[in-house]
Amino acid sequence: MTGWSERDIPDQDGRVAVVTGANSGLGYVAARELARKGARVVLACRSEARGSAAVERLLGEVPGARVELGRLDLGDLASVRAFASGLPYERIDLLLNNAGVMALPRGTTADGFETQFGVNHLGHFALTGLLLPALLAAPGARVVTVSSMMHVLANIDLGDVDCVRRYGRWVAYARSKSANLLFTHELARRLAASGEGSHVVAAAAHPGYAATNLQTTGPRMEGRGLAERAMRAGNRLFAQSAEAGALPLLYAATAPGVRPDSFTGPSFAMWRGAPAPARRAPWTVDDAMGERLWAASERLTGVTYGALKG
């Protein structure tokens, strides 16, 4: 994968892709490049206004692109169900679980879950399960879930997924990103064990340090102006562009030979550079913990993966 870039994305004509959080940042870039290669792309966005603006911008950059907007709030399981049931496609070739929040002040989703765990993991767990029949119907389908190099800061705590005992914004974020990787591991294991789903590849990716609005949202919500300015300065001075940060996601989503449960990130110190295999914490490949997270996620969301048994 040395030097791999968006120019190496294979032809996507005839493929249907769903990209969450596609109105800005990594999700927008991924949606644009998939559309540029011929995919029909659903931009799944929480804000209809921002999503519509993203569609208009994308069509300006890629005239004739086949794109559409779907409203999806991953912090509201009713919205996740409505989005999934409203998709008109019997076959989905790619689900890119990209949307996320980072280092927010403590809050809860519409269903009462701690926001970062609820949005980053539970929302995507429910969405993937609801779209599973359409993914199983597409030969060579992929589910790519975006994690972070920051996952190494903390393992998940299934005894306190909502961080009731103690809340630290970065620990909660790291737990949610570890959950993304552990979900990918368990999904890949279950797909491999299922004759029906063995052709579906579940993989993960991370962007390294990419300049998006993810870094500034938390400080802005809390009115921490100094921290927000520091994040903006860090983005300018040290981060790679959203275009570069999206490359590991696009590689995992489209490159030939991507293996199930692989984790792709930037090549240089997990920070920047061309896509390469990424290091991951040992707890994200723990089969027993994967089963426990899966059972808890099914119980909390009410979404079960009927075709995939443990």
Automatic annotation (TrEMBL):
Signal peptide: none annotated. Keywords: Oxidoreductase. NCBIfam families: PRK06197.1 (NF004846). The lineage of its organism: Bacteria, Bacillati, Actinomycetota, Actinomycetes, Kitasatosporales. This is SDR family NAD(P)-dependent oxidoreductase. One of its GO terms (molecular function) is oxidoreductase activity. InterPro entries: NAD(P)-bd_dom_sf, SDR_fam. Transmembrane segments: none annotated. Belongs to the short-chain dehydrogenases/reductases (SDR) family. It comes from the Bacteria. Gene3D superfamilies: NAD(P)-binding Rossmann-like Domain.
